[in-house]
Amino acid sequence: MPLLKISNGCIYDPANGVDGEVRDLWIQDGTVIASPGLSARGDSIRADRVIDATGLVVMPGGVDIHCHIAGSKVNAARKMSPGEKGKRFKVSGEFRSGTGGLVPSTFATGYLYAGLGYTTAFDAAVPPLSALHVHDEFADTPILDKGFFVMLGNNQYLLNQLSKGNAEQARHFIGWIVNAAKAYGVKIVNPGGVEVWKQSAGAVRSIDDSIPGFNVTPRSILREIARTVDELGLPHSIHLHCTNLGVPGNASTTLETMQALDGSRAHLAHIQFHSYGGDADDQSTFCSRVPELVEYVTSHQNLTVDVGQVLFGPATAMTGDSALGYYLHRTMGGKWFSSDTEMESGCGIVPIVYKRKSLVHALQWVVGLEWYLLMPDPWRIAMSTDHPNGAAFLAYPQIIALLMDRNRRDEVLQTLPPELKNRSTLQDIKREYTLSEIAIITRAAPARILGLKKKGHLGVGADGDVTLYQPQPDIQAMFELPRYLVSAGEVILDDGELVRQHSGRILHCSPEFDAGAVPQIASWFNDHYSLRFDNYGVDPEFIVSGVDVACDTKS
Questions:
Q1: DSSP class of residue 97?
Q2: Which of these, 22, 92, 366, 378, has the minimum number of CB atoms within 10 Å of its CB?
Q3: pTM
Q4: What is the DSSP string of 137-163?
């Protein structure tokens, strides 16, 4: 692969302690290398291409730790909002057609992420039964390196093993299913609560509620899975969607959930939706409880979060939490899609419009920003909109502008219901993010939280993923279109124009498990599923550009 030199860029690489220093960057064979120095003849080695980055801001490629971009849920969401097509892409040379909007089509997803300077993204909720479908769509999502978290918090086989106290068999099952699905990590969605919805259209409100038919509780489910994920040495902790998402007063449940982990690692997804005070039966009491949750997370190093920022305008609730989907439908009216995935999970989809005049929606906007601005350690928090739940990922530049400019936040606050002043602290927060902190929450922190040692930084040996931005007075405009994007060492965006694509890679893990445990899994599977066990897993040959990220059982 040609030798690429990025010359005289203003580099922000917080993982390596580089804060706006003017340096050169060299990339070869898709990897950042040291300056090659002199040739054997004593001549300076010439790059095959030099990008003059004088005056440009240089950061690692963006990493989205939590989004929904592939699988049957995404297809259903596209059908529910046929008018939300956004930018249309036409066939041109090597580029394929597609549509943008709230839920872009596969090819467009890759192009639009690249257009923001992102090179890596993780789908946050995939039932094992849908894994092959997701991999098929990943193959049509260019440029991005991508992976997914497989949903296990309501898997009936796993609940059975936990109910019987078969911790060892449960461990082997989790190891096997991550391998079989070619997943990167494990997602827990409303542990046990989706199973209750599937049984009776009921809801779980406490992490100590008993799950009918299994004699387990949400507390025991998340504790056992979290412990097992740590034992398996998966690079990423459990990826957790807590009980009572979106319900006033749910901050108490969130705090209880964090305490129940008993020191095991956990990443709390879309934490904004889990940070509310008030009475579940009285929305007039709705308020923020971010400060006390931030205090708890800050003092417990086993915990990390992404935000799930809400922005005003159209969005699509897309969740593996079926009960939540129905709750949103009853609360907001309009369309509603619900489905069950056999013995594994559920799904709920509801189109939403977040309105400035709504006190609830305005408070959700405020709560997300409070998390960013009150969290003292940016290495423990990652940017997300829970795409497309709070907004599309295309809104990231808008969030960055709000974090870097207090006046911009205050201007928006003036347009929102005045009652917010008594229900939150945002109006009192003076903090403004620096470019280095933006590089942390959009790149370095999510890569570190995911355990991706070659992502999120620009040190020697890092993946050759680099974004170059043209500084502008309008921060949002600056981050809406980079001047250049380099992905895996290839120039993808050239002077703001998309000029090249590649397939990207599939990031997955292969934790160890006892093959002797598989026959019992297969027997149960064949008795309960609508397809045969032999047709269930993803054939390794199906993963064309796979990267098996190592597990670390020593840690």
A1: P
A2: 92
A3: 0.96
A4: HHTTS-S-EEEEEEE-TT-HHHHHHHH
